[in-house]
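Protein record
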Amino acid sequence: MALESAVIQDKLTGKFGDKATGFVQIKDILSFEVAADVANDAIRFLKEDGLLRFNFLTDVCGVHYPDNDKERQFAVVYHLHNWMDNVRVRVKCFLDGDKPEVDTVTNLFLGANWQERETYDFYGIIFKGHPQLKRILNMDEMESFPMRKEFPLEDGGRTDKDDRFFGRSTDNALNF
């Protein structure tokens, strides 16, 4: 018997109640949201439950939503895979913009070590309890987090570029 999305949803809502919400099937992946304070417990449940058996952490990544309310400005997304039934899930938890923190899952998946460090390095999301949370790809001296959408994509002070040459003039005509 294949592991059905409805079974996963029922088990999670039975265990975590309204802290597990927003269940939606996107192609072949069941996606849902968990509250940040139960993210580690929910992932542990997905891994250790005898029926669910999501024994492989495929990915951990961050997302910045600068237009969201402060309480939902950042998100951490986990992708888990149950190899026995070949079922995947996407778990998302939103974090406060002023203090983006969530418990580490390195206690459950050692492979999360690099992924959480990379997410910290680029988004500034703190993984509480991480064994060595420090920058992994950027310089240690760097004070900003480059994947946050706080900075303009282009340098407004550049003088070597004229928007008219790139099809971005206001009247859409090239006036040489």
User: Anything to note?
Assistant: The mean pLDDT is 90.
